[in-house]
Amino acid sequence: MQDIFDKIRNNRGPLGKYAKETHGYFTFPKLEGEIDRKMTFRGKEVLVWSVNNYLGLANHPEVRATDAEAAAEWGMAYPMGARMMSGQTSLHEKLESDLADFMEKEDAFLLNYGYQGCQSAIEALVDRNDVIVYDSESHACMIDGVRLHQGKRFVFKHNDMDSFRKQLEHAQKFTRNTGGGILVVTEGVFGMAGDQGKLREIAALKEAFKFRLFVDDAHGFGTIGRDGRGAGSAQGVQDQIDVYFGTFAKAMATIGAFVAGDEQVIEFLRYNMRSQTFAKSLPMPIVAGAIKRLEMMRNEPQHKENLWKIANALQSGLREAGFDLGLTNSVVTPVFLKGTLGEATNITMDLRENFNIFCSIVVYPVVPKDVIMLRLIPTAVHTLEDVAYTIETFKKMAVKLKAGEYHANEIVDWR
Prior knowledge:
This protein is 42% helix and 16% strand. The chain is an alpha/beta fold. It has two domains: 12-48 and 302-402, Aspartate Aminotransferase, domain 1 (Alpha-Beta Complex), CATH 3.90.1150.10; 61-299, Aspartate Aminotransferase, domain 2 (3-Layer(aba) Sandwich), CATH 3.40.640.10.
């Protein structure tokens, strides 16, 4: 019999095995100071392209004032207990009503966290007789929700409608024997590569295959669609999304999430999502702050307009400079390069130490072994000067990469 700790010592996982070399710089870095376009990294100011403060609300004076006033009035304890038992308030109900109205759905249910809430919602919607059909590049929280499912599941190639139809056919055949149904799970905007899920094409198959559609739109909520209503709105199929999931952690720059849909479905989730039934209710300052942020999303379109001004300038400028941005059709801006893991660390250090640019580095196993992805997140508080400087810096970086100046076979030790 093996000691499970021995197993852990011998296998730290694909990323954890590099913890000694990467911790504190490439992984678990500390960005300090006010959340803004420029922050402090290891004692010096850097231009930050890695914080999901899409609409720039994190330090907006009205938002900060609302958060502070709510904290002063209620503190962080109230309400105590789970929503079902003793944690219900009128503000929680108001936020849910506002979200349902904004998303053009009958009802909405407020969730404590995005990751936890998404996986729990998926698990609650199906039983062992049902089948889940899901996109291969779905976020980890969705994959974990699928894993909790005790029935059959089929995965289709990312945004591949031929593969999707084939898996639906398998699912349909399976449910004929079980008497169950089909839940399709995909994203509105895929957070790594920035491409939108093909919601219109997926919805077109609903009648033929009689499935229900669950969409995680963490990166679409607040950034695309009419007034930020997300990918379903942008693609004209909001009414075809049966359960819409959105998080507050991106565009709204706070904690929490929600699901929205038909009243009976949301009522079912309200009483059957284990992650919410057995969890303490969201504190009042977070709820009051979310109400304020949603109000600003709805009534102040300049935040979304500023975001897209920066995103369009950044993406068009990088493409004109010859960079591969993949298939992004959202504000998420991936830059794909060819290179080794060692080269990736050298590029990152060069950008941070010599050019004062902080962006996220994505390597295997998230992308193939010979691919480096630099992921840039534009926000409404970035400037066109930031964009111009970044594009010029990336041009210099590309020249150095081609010349072999970043060559390294192993991860560079930054310490």
